[in-house]
Design goal:
Elements (H helix, E strand, L loop, with lengths): L1 H8 L4 E5 L9 H7 L6 E2 L2 H4 L15 H10 L7 E5 L7 H10 L5 E3 L3 H7 L25 E2 L1 H10 L1 E4 L3 H4 L17 E2 L15 H10 L8 E4 L5 H11 L5 E3 L2 H5 L13
Parallel strand pairs: 1-2, 1-3, 3-4, 5-9, 6-7, 6-8, 8-9
Organism: Actinomadura verrucosospora
Pfam family, one: Rhodanese
GO molecular function: thiosulfate-cyanide sulfurtransferase activity
Length: 270
C-alpha cells in the first residue's frame, strides 16, 4: 500500500485499473464514480475481460483482438507497470491480473486489500476521471496454462483440481447461478475465501502453502482450479502463485462443464 502511494506521488509511469465488480450487482462503475484511486481507469470485467456468455461459460476468454483493444483503451502498454484493484479481496482483480499475464503482459500487480485498504489507510481518492492516452499493448495469448473440460476432468484424477467455490455449492446443496448443482468428480474444495484474512488481504505465502498442501496441492504435482465461471478461480491461481505453486485455470469452469450433459456430476464431500 505505501509502495503504490509512493509511486503515485513520484508520478511514476504506471497504469492503474479499477475492476470493481459484483456478481449480482450493482455495476462496478457506480462504485468507481463515487470514488477511486487518483488516475485509475475503470475496466468492466464482463465487457472488457470476458467474451460473450454461452456454452464456453459465463466468462469465457475474450477474443485476443477484443482484449487488446480494451486494454489499449485503458492505457495499457507493453512496457508499463499495471496495478489492478477491486473492493477488497482481489476476487475480480485477480481475473484481470491473470488475463493480462495470459495475453503476455508480465508487469502486472494486484493491490492487496484493494480500495478498502487504501481508504482505511487515509490515502487520497477522487471522483475525477483521467484523460487516458491509448496504450500500445499487444495481446499474445497462451502465456499461462489453461484447461478445457476434458483436461479438467483428467486432472481431477491424475493431479489436483481445486474447486474454488463455497462449500455448499461444491457439495451441490445450492446453486444460485448455474442450472446444475455439484462439482467435477475428483475435484477438491478450496473456497477462495480461505485465501484471505478478514481484512481482504492475502494470507502470507507460508500459510497459503500450508493450506494448499493440506489439499494435496504442491509444486510437485500438476494443479488446476475452477469455479463457477473462471473469475474466483483466477483468485485461486494467484494465491497458488503466491505460494510458489504453478497452476492452470479452467476458464470455462462449472458453467462450461454443465453445458455438456455428458459430463459427470458429483455431489457431497468427495
Amino acid at each position: 500500500m505505501p509502495a503504490l502511494d509512493r509511486l503515485l506521488r513520484r508520478q511514476t509511469p504506471l497504469v492503474l485499473l479499477d475492476v470493481r465488480w459484483h456478481l449480482a450487482g450493482p455495476p462496478g462503475v457506480d462504485s468507481y464514480r463515487k470514488g477511486h484511486l487518483p488516475g485509475a481507469v475503470f475496466v468492466d470485467l464482463d465487457r472488457d475481460v470476458a467474451g460473450p456468455p454461452g456454452p464456453a461459460g459465463r466468462h469465457p476468454l475474450p477474443a485476443s483482438g477484443d482484449f487488446e483493444a480494451a486494454m489499449r483503451r485503458a492505457g495499457v502498454s507493453g512496457d508499463r507497470l499495471v496495478v489492478v484493484y477491486d473492493d477488497a479481496d482481489s476476487m475480480s482483480a485477480a481475473r484481470v491480473w491473470w488475463s493480462l499475464r495470459y495475453f503476455g503482459h508480465d508487469k502486472v500487480r494486484v493491490l492487496n486489500g484493494g480500495y478498502r485498504a487504501w481508504t482505511e489507510a487515509g490515502l487520497a481518492v477522487t471522483t475525477d476521471e483521467p484523460d487516458v492516452k491509448p496504450g500500445d499493448f499487444f495481446a499474445r495469448p497462451g502465456r499461462l496454462p489453461v484447461l478445457d473440460a476434458e483436461g479438467a476432468g483428467a486432472l481431477a484424477t491424475a493431479g489436483v483440481l481445486l474447486d474454488a467455490r463455497a462449500a455448499e455449492r461444491y457439495r451441490g446443496e445450492t446453486e444460485p447461478v448455474d442450472p446444475v448443482a455439484g462439482h467435477i468428480p475428483g475435484a477438491r474444495n478450496a473456497p477462495t475465501s480461505g485465501n484471505v484474512g478478514v481484512d481482504g488481504r492475502f494470507l502470507p505465502p507460508g500459510l497459503l502453502r500450508e493450506r494448499f498442501a493440506q489439499l494435496g496441492a504442491t509444486d510437485a504435482l500438476d494443479v488446476g482450479a475452477y469455479c463457477g465461471s473462471g473469475v474466483t478461480a483466477a483468485h485461486e491461481i494467484l494465491a497458488l502463485n503466491l505460494a510458489g505453486i504453478p497452476a492452470a485455470l479452467y476458464v470455462g469452469s462449472w458453467s462450461n462443464w454443465v453445458a455438456d450433459p455428458a459430463n459427470p456430476v458429483a455431489t457431497g464431500d468427495a
